User: Which sequence fits this backbone?
């Protein structure tokens, strides 16, 4: 199966160096890897100094409450990107999932616990369908998820009849999103838990190394016995379940089901995931990079809005950041590939040992380590 998408990841990558003559390589590595994180700090200081109300607990609570769902969706999009695929259903899926979470309680009389379980099960089955389309039917992931997502959106319209779904929801269900811990919205803690779990899985387990191997070179991964199709399908299932959970949070937050909710989440979620591949580990999709990417969006948009930015500022900022993030991600990948080729040239001359996953035997060694 050919790797059709432009999203690439590697099991082991060379450090991306942007160093130039007269500039310390160490300093350039710091700027390359942690530049966006430093930019978050700088933006926070600038907005705090220019707009005193920005540096307040109220602003922090508003940012965490409004951007936590986007952060979860960005992490959901990150999972398929690690195996070299794109899942657009992080935007389409929550349209139906949040409606379903409400109608199961209001119209069909299920308890809120059972309603959540049903939503998560259906979202998992839907993710399996997307995985089959991509892995077994060999359809490009962008086309497959765009087509299935459009169908899912149509199902949401049919299920809701194009109307708002309103009803009395249990207080326990509402508390899933509205609760606070030490004054911090509980949704922010969901993001931390999911991010830590994904980080541990992708960076510190053989499964994570296999995922990066599949994303970096699926042919080499398959030759080394890695079940590529299973990893691709599993990534779509995990992404869809996390999207389903986010749909539940949106239902808890709004208390109303409507098909107009959801699509506004797609672009910023993808922006965060793409932007994340340019930091922490440039040229490689990674969990903490995605979190930093969402922080950039959240701080930037909140600061501009407090400056009096118009209602169209947020989509403009998201679109411009997406273009910038894709450009930076592509440049980081080209630098990484150039570093890989340089190592291979040194290898042929006997001046250095290879440090890049470039052959099936290398992939086998990485997966088993």
Assistant:
């Amino acid at each position: 199966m050919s790797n059709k998408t432009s999203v690439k990841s590697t099991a082991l990558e060379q450090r991306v160096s942007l160093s130039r003559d007269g500039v310390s390589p160490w300093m350039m590595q710091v700027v390359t890897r942690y530049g966006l994180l430093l930019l978050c700090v700088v933006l926070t200081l600038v907005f705090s100094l220019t707009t005193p109300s920005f540096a307040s607990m109220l602003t922090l609570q508003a940012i965490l409450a409004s951007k936590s769902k986007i952060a979860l969706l960005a992490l959901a999009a990150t999972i398929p990107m690690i195996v070299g695929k794109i899942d657009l259903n992080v935007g389409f899926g929550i349209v139906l999932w949040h409606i379903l979470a409400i109608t199961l309680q209001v119209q069909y009389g299920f308890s809120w616990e059972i309603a959540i379980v049903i939503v998560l099960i259906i979202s998992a089955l839907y993710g399996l369908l997307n995985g089959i389309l991509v892995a077994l039917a060999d359809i490009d992931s962008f086309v497959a998820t765009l087509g299935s997502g459009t169908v899912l959106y149509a199902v949401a319209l049919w299920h809701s009849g194009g109307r708002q779904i309103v009803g009395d929801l249990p207080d326990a269900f509402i508390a899933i999103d509205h609760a606070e811990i030490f004054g911090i919205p509980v949704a922010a803690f969901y993001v931390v838990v999911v991010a830590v779990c994904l980080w541990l899985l992708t960076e510190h387990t053989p499964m994570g190394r296999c995922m990066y191997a599949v994303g970096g070179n699926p042919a080499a991964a398959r030759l080394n016995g890695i079940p590529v199709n299973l990893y691709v399908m599993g990534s779509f299932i995990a992404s869809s379940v996390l999207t389903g959970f986010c749909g539940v949070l949106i239902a808890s937050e709004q208390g109303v089901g409507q098909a107009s909710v959801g699509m506004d989440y797609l672009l910023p979620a993808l922006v965060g995931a793409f932007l994340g591949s340019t930091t922490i580990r440039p040229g490689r999709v990674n969990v903490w990079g995605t979190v930093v990417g969402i922080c950039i969006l959240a701080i930037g948009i909140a600061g501009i809005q407090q400056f009096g930015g118009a209602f169209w500022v947020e989509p403009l900022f998201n679109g411009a950041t997406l273009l910038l993030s894709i450009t930076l991600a592509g440049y980081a990948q080209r630098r990484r590939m150039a570093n890989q080729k340089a190592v291979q040239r040194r290898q042929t001359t006997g001046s250095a040992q290879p440090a890049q996953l470039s052959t099936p035997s290398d992939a086998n060694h990485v997966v088993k380590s």
